[in-house]
Amino acid sequence: MKLRLSLLVFLSTTIMNLSAQPKFGQNSIGIFENHGDIGEVKHKGFVNFDPIDQSYLIGASGSNMWFGSDEFHYVWSSIQGDFIARAEFEFIGTGVDPHRKMGWTVRNNLSTGSPMVHAVVHGDGLTDLQYRATQHAETEQITMHSNGVNVIQLERRGNTYIMSAGYHGDTLQSVQLDLDLKNEVYIGLALCSHNTDVIERAIVKNVRIIKPVAPDYTPYQDYIGSHLEVMDIDTKTRRILMSSKHSIQAPNWTTDGKQLIYNSNGYLYYYNLQDGSVSQMNTGFADQNNNDHVLSFDGSQMAISHYVTEEDRASTIYVLPTSGSDQPQRITKPNVGHSFLHGWSTDHQYIVFTGQRDDQWNIFKVNVKTGEEIQLTHEPTLDDGPEYTPDGEYIYFNSTRSGMMKIWRMKDDGSEQEQITFDDQYNDWFAHPSPDGKWIVLLSYHTDVEPDQHPFYQHCVLRMMPASGGTPEIIAYIYGGQGSINVPSWSPDSKRIAFVTNSDF
User: Fold this and answer.
1) Of the candidates 443, 487, 488, 478, which has an alpha carbon nearest to the alpha carbon of residue 229?
2) What is the pLDDT of residue 148?
């Protein structure tokens, strides 16, 4: 039995390593298959991919992307079925023609008159969804904005194309159309100078082409792949560190800044930030770990939430050294209900968690040495996601007690409970204070998701707010949700965060 288990662990870890680090060759264009000019352009276009920040520099000529034919430079991949394409676009310089265009285009073929959908912003700020229904037909458009955007998303759901756009940090606004293109199409970045005599340039960053989950998938049974990402808080630049066909979830940053720890298929894994290698943490018998795992403030211990088969798969909290252990120490008592871990006290004496007790979900803390539980909230609604501030003064958590899921905080003893986020556009989960105590990062779902739910595979956003209070600002648009940022995910220097996004590879 031990041999069989060891073989399974070896195979799992090997698969992780095979897909660990994005591979970019010398002539790589990142996630795309190829590039080239569409139409008879006067000056040849180009693309340069920067593997460090994973951005694209594009240069292009071309008379127009309009009427019955197009001229532009195209950086493309082929794709089948539904997709979500998102990126941030920026023209370089003031430009020559105010109608220069950049954005996403999806096409049946690579000819100049292909049926297509363009989601573009012009040099003068005009933003529109353009389309050509048949080969060489006249182009039509749905105008969206007149003041410019830098985030453009183009999504296909069957024959429906949805363009969402806005300035980075805004809630994206959307328009859509129905158009019958082929199931297998080209999708990619487009740039047109709108002047045959010049080459315009643009920088495109945070580029993602996502294959969403099937509409009829079964939650917690059907999974798609994952990207392990980090983002620089100052520049909002994101990098994919690792892609896996497995469902990976909830990265922690170790206190020495050298590794991330994430969970997958019941196990915990280390990701080495220097060389991209992956290795498995020894958690002994605890082989059904969920995505609630948290390092102590000094980094010496790891608390985990493991499903105990013999107790109706109750989520149960254990503690072990960060280096791993054959025998994790059980903290919460048997047969009391689910206990979903979220944080440590700064003195390492208590673990704070969401507990299911008497068919209600409230916040508790438990003494690591004695197992004594102290109930901190007493609400009939859902309280979840408790986490201590670095000074130990407050515990942040999320609660539906006001009708929506919003961020709250309280003192360490449960007193002075107060609501922190108030806007009605989002349901907010999992507030993570930065190590320097200045910021709070959280995950926000749109209101089409029920307040007490935090499902996988949704359009959602990461937001940040000052610890002193204020309205959260969007820092990232993601396809993810459950498992994206359930646990403390800040780098030790408070300059970066780690999170998971999803795509079906």
Assistant:
1) 478
2) 78
Query: For position 394, which CATH number holds?
Result: 2.120.10.30
Do 117 and 262 sit in the same domain of this protein?
no
DSSP per-residue string spanning 96-141: S-TT-EEEEEEESSSSTT--EEEEEEETTS-EEEEEE-STTPPPEE
Which DSSP letter does residue 196 get? Answer: T
- At residue 310, the 3 state secondary structure works out as helix
Instruction: Please tell me whether residues 329 and 399 are part of one structural domain.
Output: yes
260-269 long-range Cβ contacts below 8 angstroms, 24+ apart: 260/228, 260/498, 261/293, 261/295, 261/302, 262/228, 262/500, 263/289, 263/290, 263/291, 263/293, 264/12, 264/16, 265/12, 267/9, 267/12, 268/293, 268/302, 268/304, 269/13, 269/16
Q: What is the CA radius of gyration of the chain?
A: 24
Domain end (from 210, 238, 254): 210
CA angle, 178 then 181 then 183, to 5°: 115
Q: Higher confidence at residue 7 or residue 124?
A: 124
Token pair in block for residue 271: 């990701």
Residues 272 and 234 in one domain: yes
Whole-Å CA distances, 417 to 366, 374, 505: 19, 16, 44
Q: Which structural domain range is residue 471 located in?
A: 225-503
64 and 156, same domain (yes or no)? yes
Asked whether 298 and 274 are in contact (CB, 8 A), the reply is no
In tens, the pLDDT along 256-281 reads: 999 999 999 999 999 999 999 999 99
Confirm whether 25 is domain-assigned: no
* pLDDT tens, residue by residue, 486-496: 999 999 999 99
**Residues 147, 253 within the same domain:** no
Say which residues have a Cβ less than 8 Å from residue 488's Cβ, sequence separation at least 6: 252, 253, 294, 295, 343, 387, 432
- Report d(CA 66, CA 72) in Å as an integer: 11
One domain, residues 236 and 157: no
Tokens at 97, concatenated: 């023609």
Q: Does the pLDDT value for residue 3 go beyond 90?
A: no
Same domain assignment for residues 259 and 338? yes
